[in-house]
Design goal:
The chain has about 90 residues and is mainly beta. Helix content is about 15%, strand content about 35%. The protein has one domain. The chain is built from one helix and five strands, in the order βββββα. A hairpin with a 5-residue loop joins strand 4 and strand 5.
Length: about 90
């Protein structure tokens, strides 16, 4: 889907419970997990600025909802979702 834009980030090839990645066109990193008591059709996700420093969003979503969220972050930063959070 994102082909050459996809860059692994903070993950290892043998990772089986989640992954971290960037898309070169988006100044953010995405981390997703699925294990333990997380339902099998749900991803626990976290989105952070790139370079790191600001946590932007976290939650749980199905795959289609998560992919839709990534598309929102492909827009200019000024149009990113307003429901960001700060730690």
């Amino acid at each position: 889907m994102y082909g050459p834009e996809y860059v692994p980030y903070g993950t290892a090839e043998e990772e089986s419970e989640g992954t971290g990645f960037r898309l070169t066109s988006i100044p953010a990193t995405f981390s997703v997990l699925s294990f333990g008591d997380i339902p099998p059709d749900i991803l626990d996700y976290q989105i952070e600025s790139y370079p790191p420093g600001d946590y932007l969003k976290a939650g749980q979503a199905g795959l289609d909802e998560f992919l839709s969220l990534i598309e929102k972050y492909k827009r200019p930063v000024s149009e990113w979702p307003e429901d960001r959070f700060a730690e």
